[in-house]
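Exercise: predict the structure of this protein bound to N-(iminomethyl)-L-glutamic acid.
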Amino acid sequence: MLITNIKLLIQVEEQPCLRVCGADMSRLNNLENAWLLTNGKFIQDFGTMDRMPKGDFEMEIDASDCFVFPSFCDCHTHLVYAGSREQEFIDKINGLSYQEIARRGGGILHSAQLLHITSEEELFRQAMERVREIIAFGTGAVEIKSGYGLNLEDELKMLRVIQRIANESPLTVKSTFLGAHALPSEYNGDTKEYVNDIINEMIPVIATEELADYIDVFCETGFFSVEDTDRILNAGMKYGLRAKVHANQLSFSGGVQVGVKYNAISVDHLESSGIKEFESLNNSETMPVVLPGASFFLNMQHAPAKQMIDYGLPLAIASNYNPGSCPSGDMKFMMSLACINMKLNTQQAINAATINGAYAMDLSHSHGSISKGKVANLFITKPIPSLDSIPYSFNSQIIDTIILKGRII
Ligand code: NIG
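Solution:
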């Protein structure tokens, strides 16, 4: 497939890099008046129109006045869930906090009850609606967590649905086991016993059945402590599951530090973080991931994303698509929120939503930029005036054509 007359080809890499940090996040390599050639699933080549390849191509697309983007890499979602939680949305409007709702047995535990009574087939059907939705929003690679099962059988149900999404959708999918998302009520407050069961009962089965790439813990006051997190990440590591951590969402939980200790591929949320967390992340291989949709939806503080970049750190943005803190998987909207509320510039937001998101899923060698040999996951925009118009027009649908793994969707 040859795409010609591209007004601006975004995020072009001659020398592919795995992630972008600090001041480099404000740089974006773009080609004006460009062409791009795919070969099967992959990007074969690209260049400027004065040096266009000649020959017979299976398909030619004229992208005059349009931009071509690498697909978004959404590295933090919980998009496999049953039903929805709009009653809690109303409770929040009426003054209850996320934690108060959780303490009353709502929140994650409510989603776990719904998931328990939903068949695997129905769960897959509901999740696929969200998958189709995020594909239309421009996402090409996604991480999906379990964590609404909270017992072996229901966690396996979720993870099998994630595996089926990976097999049956055009998305590139990474799967995360998040048994430590909330304490099930049948444990009567005994977190230690549940952590034991995660370590002894769940991790061995999930790892043996190769149902997860990563292991995650909601390290937060009222959920799982640093000690619980340490034990779970340690056990996961022994089974080859690399760490991710829900860190510092509601308090300075220590989640960042324990994540870095285990060389987590990412620590996510980070609303409550400062210099100690920045120091811990500095010179580590761990990607800080911020979730601007959760702060927006819960009307809570935003992660100090700009300060992290100014400190020299890399940064990724993800949607956090879930029924409780962000019922949206719209990565373009997340970029707008990051610009508006976290003061990122457009280039930083694009780097955060593409190459750095790919890094947080261990996919940046094959996804997240326009680079020869990378997977042809792209979208062609409608005619748009400028790069800045993308976060600016925060609610406009700008995508015209979606190409995933080299095929028009
Ligand atoms: O990343 N904070 C923990 N987990 C999700 C919310 C899950 C839910 O409320 O259902 C998050 O925000």
